[in-house]
What we know:
The chain is mainly α. It has two domains: about 30 residues, no CATH class; about 110 residues.
Amino acid sequence: MFLSRWIYPYATCWPGDAGLSKLFSACSKSTVLKMPPGLKSFLQSWLINTLAVLVAANIVPGIKYDNITGLLVATLVLGVLNAVLRPLLLLLSLPLVLLTLGLFTLVINALLLYFVGWLVESFHVANLWSAFWGALVISLVSLVLNSFTGTGRTRIEFGRGKRPSDRDDDGPVIDV
Length: 176
């Protein structure tokens, strides 16, 4: 009873309150399975990152996982490191990030992926080059999946604007 109220804090009725027949007659499935929006976005981003790391492990030689649990733990650790350590590393390396026009963020992502391979025993990253190419694949796959699902901060928009006219009737132009 206590566990069901902890799992379903936003629901109006809980699975432990009544028998199954009373539950499904009194409550709709959408009411019972409602989850907080923060948890939903966390699970979506974790799933997207897990799929991106899975693609990287299948494409990039040198990135391997022993079992699915190792993959899930590695993506969870990678998400925590991206949330905690990555902003600090970006701030400390800001001159290099600006000098390389943002490409140094791939090196930071590679270092974090290599560190995850060192921390999680069932997830292996062979060397820094494998981590670099894996970070590139993870970034691209995450970008595509986030744009398809609408999660994350990345947006790709395709639009058709008005064609510029060939006439010079747009008004006064001041050249400096």
